[in-house]
Design brief:
heterodimer; A: 398 residues; mainly alpha; Cytochrome-c3 Hydrogenase, chain B; 3-stranded antiparallel sheet; 17 helices; 47% helix; 12% strand; B: 181 residues; alpha/beta; Beta Polymerase, domain 2; two-stranded parallel sheet
Chain lengths: 398, 181
């Protein structure tokens, strides 16, 4: 242990961080080359959670594939469901009814809140702020009970269908959601008082893992990580989909692109999500919650049981080669998921299963840029930077 | 191709005109897509075209690099001289109306090499590694072309159409113990 007190020794030590490390929140691995306590080189490895989602897309039909999208970013499955069906719908050239668009916006924003809350809790936990973890999980729990009541599941939601959602919002939804968005900003204020001006939190995150906006674009960063560098780019504004153009909300940006700014951007995004949810609840249109076209959507259960026509439609949707069949062609469709641009590039050969389904996950790019943010920093900052990026192994490895 | 239509000379976007003026015959096809254009370019000019898009036309953000194995898509095969693979780039610009560009490059199975764009976008590093891992496309000039999602000793390229869904070799080489009944 010669020269252990000095900052640099000239000797290199290799530290293996992960795949089973509590701060990686999944199966990530970083090989750190250290000189004393500073990081000389960081090499991220991935693939530990590779499940062949893209290959499965070539064997499952369009509606079956929705359950696979649940498992990509398992912190906000509703956003993935949404992004995927939107891509298929654009390939089909159909547009869902307005009520359905609003329901999807509601669900996407609620899951953005849930995702950011989990990020907040665990990122703070990694830096030793345990109480924030409890506060954010208390709020997240309320969201998960809303998801559970709406979709029947907490994690594997599979809520959307090509052409709509599988059922309408439950009766007390508006009350529950309004209750949440009224109380949530107060709860978030508690977190602000715990962290935002906290000396330790600021010392651990300010100037740590900074990236310039040019580099961020060059690396393909999106979402809060890009906006923290000062680029006001949000797909909900840039390419509005599913009625987002009707909502009034701001896109928060940072200035330094460091961990602290990523924290502030996500905190403000939660408030903006609440604004969107409030507007969606105020203006929630009546009407069908799904496309009333039995060539695309399953008919109502009573129809399937009670009428021969309904039964035929039901049968045709389920049978391979009779259900949802987009015409030959290809499309890339991107949505603003909590982590950034979640894109689906689908090539269709005209049959009921996709010919090629490519998923463009935001975490893949964030994890790739990690060495840029780590090298030259301290080894203890690794956890702070990794925490601030919110890399989700499920969508990273697919 | 529901959202794509054939482009007529008068109304095509400026970007497409610029590309046609500069690359002429190297552009094998071009169509308009939602929020942008899609072009097919031959392999010899792919790097020059992507460089031109990035440096002169401000397509600074590389959204995605991937490939499609067209071996079971007869229409595409016929159109591009039986090139088995199609490498697909998605680009985005923060300026201008034509925000998205899709660039496709046909790659023949007997010559799987294609120039790497890592010099232009650092983000291309892992994307090209993944495309190599899944399809076996070799990106020339890539400093670190290793597998990324599959293990290092894995054989084959799983997203090729001739690779079975349930894997190859894993089940056959699995030792089952006989039950004594």
């Amino acid at each position: 242990m010669q020269g252990g007190m000095e900052r640099t020794t000239g000797e290199k030590m290799v530290l293996n961080f992960g795949p089973q490390h509590p701060a990686t929140h999944g199966t990530l691995r970083i090989v750190l080359e250290l000189d004393g306590e500073s990081v000389v080189k960081a090499t991220p490895h991935c693939g530990y959670l590779h499940t062949g989602f893209e290959k499965l897309g070539e064997h499952l039909d369009y509606n079956q594939y929705i359950v696979v999208t649940d498992r990509m970013n398992y912190l906000s499955p509703l956003s993935n469901n949404f992004g995927y069906v939107l891509a298929v719908e654009q390939l089909l050239g159909i547009e869902v009814p307005e009520r359905c668009q609003y329901i999807r916006v509601l669900m996407a924003e609620l899951s953005r809140l849930a995702d950011h809350l989990l990020w907040l809790g665990t990122a703070a936990l990694d830096l030793g702020a345990f109480s924030v973890f409890l506060y954010s999980f208390r709020e997240r729990e309320k969201l998960y009970s809303i998801f559970e009541k709406t979709t029947g599941a907490r994690l594997t939601t599979s809520y959307t269908r090509v052409g709509g959602v599988f059922r309408d919002l439950y009766d007390g939804f508006e009350n529950d959601a309004r209750d949440f968005i009224t109380n949530f900003p107060k709860a978030l204020k508690e977190t602000h008082t715990l962290l935002t001006r906290n000396r330790i939190w600021m010392d651990r995150t300010k100037g740590v893992g900074a990236i310039s906006s040019d580099d961020a674009i060059n690396y393909g960063l999106t979402g809060p990580c890009l906006r923290a560098t000062g680029v006001a780019h949000d797909l909900r504004k840039a390419e509005p989909y599913s009625s987002y153009e009707k909502f009034d909300f701001d896109v928060p940006v940072g200035t330094n692109g460091d961990s602290y700014d990523r924290y502030l951007v996500r905190m403000e995004e939660m408030i903006q999500s609440c604004r969107i949810i409030r507007q969606a609840l105020d203006n929630l249109p009546d009407g069908p919650f799904s496309l009333e076209d039995n060539k695309v959507m399953m008919p109502d259960k009573s129809d399937a049981y009670g009428h021969i026509e309904g039964l035929i439609h039901h049968f045709k949707i389920v049978m391979d080669g009779h259900g949802v069949q987009p015409p030959k062609g290809e499309d890339y469709c991107a949505t603003e998921s909590p982590n950034g641009e979640l894109g689906f590039y689908i090539v269709s050969d005209g049959s009921g299963t996709g010919y090629r389904i490519r998923i463009r996950p935001p975490s893949f790019f964030h994890f790739q840029a990690l060495p840029h943010m780590l090298e030259g920093g301290m080894v203890s900052d690794t956890v702070a930077v990794l925490g601030s990026l919110n890399v989700i192994a499920g969508e990273l490895d697919r | 191709m529901n959202e794509e239509k054939e482009v007529t000379e008068e109304e095509q976007p400026l970007v497409l005109q610029k590309l046609q003026d500069k690359f002429g015959d190297a552009l094998l096809a071009s169509t308009e897509i939602r929020q942008g254009v899609a072009v097919v370019v031959n392999k010899e000019n792919s790097y020059a075209l992507l460089e031109y898009l990035k440096t002169d036309l401000a397509y600074s953000y590389l959204v995605d690099v991937t490939a499609v194995d067209n071996s079971k898509l007869e229409s595409e095969l016929m159109q591009y001289d039986y090139a088995r693979f199609m490498v697909v780039y998605h680009l985005y610009t923060y300026e201008g109306e034509t925000s998205r560009i899709r660039v496709k490059v046909p790659v023949h199975e007997k010559d799987l090499k294609i120039p790497s764009v890592i010099e232009l976008w650092k983000g291309a590093n892992w994307l090209e590694r993944e495309t190599y891992d899944m399809f076996g496309i070799e990106f020339e000039g890539h400093p670190d072309l290793r597998r990324i999602l599959m293990p290092d000793d894995f054989e084959g390229h799983p997203l090729r159409k001739d690779y079975p869904l349930r894997g190859r070799g894993e089940r056959e080489s699995f030792n089952f113990e006989k039950q004594n009944v």
